Amino acid sequence: MVPLVEQVKLSGSAQELPTEVASRLDSAQLGHQFHHGNYLVEVGRSYTSALGGSCWELLVTDTNSSQSQQRIACQQGSRWLLVPEIADRSDSELIFNATY
Predict the structure, then answer these.
(1) pLDDT score at 89
(2) Which residues of the chain have pLDDT under 70?
(3) Which of 9, 39, 74, 90 has a beta carbon 3.0–4.6 Å from 55's, enabling a disulfide?
(4) Residue (of 27, 75, 34, 69) closest to 51 by Cα position
(5) E-only strand ranges, 1-78
(6) In terms of DSSP bridges, do strands 39-48 and 33-36 run parallel, antiparallel, or are they unpaired?
(7) C-alpha dist (Å) from residue 52 to 31, 33, 61, 67, 74
(8) What's the pLDDT at 52?
(9) Radius of gyration (C-alpha) of the chain in whole angstroms
(10) Domain-by-domain residue ranges, the chain?
(11) Between vectors from CA 88 to CA 21 and to CA 78, what angle results, nearest 5°?
């Protein structure tokens, strides 16, 4: 697979995930849930990033406050990183009308 964009250094904008979380993402499936500390992590859809890496959408809920946050985790080599989402899809609507 050929990446759509060149590799960039993610200094300061990405956070490496702990080994325990990374190993769960290696074998994750859509809808899989697991606890890590005070957080409940629900695995969303997977996709291939423009850099050619595997990524998961995650819903991370603080079990103490019940506050949730959507995050993106992407694999870079043998590591999994929390990365910033580069496309704002908060007001995006995907509607497909097909006629035959």
Answers:
(1) 52
(2) 1-12, 86-100
(3) 74
(4) 75
(5) 15-16, 33-36, 39-48, 54-62, 68-76
(6) antiparallel
(7) 23, 25, 28, 31, 10
(8) 84
(9) 15
(10) 15-83
(11) 25
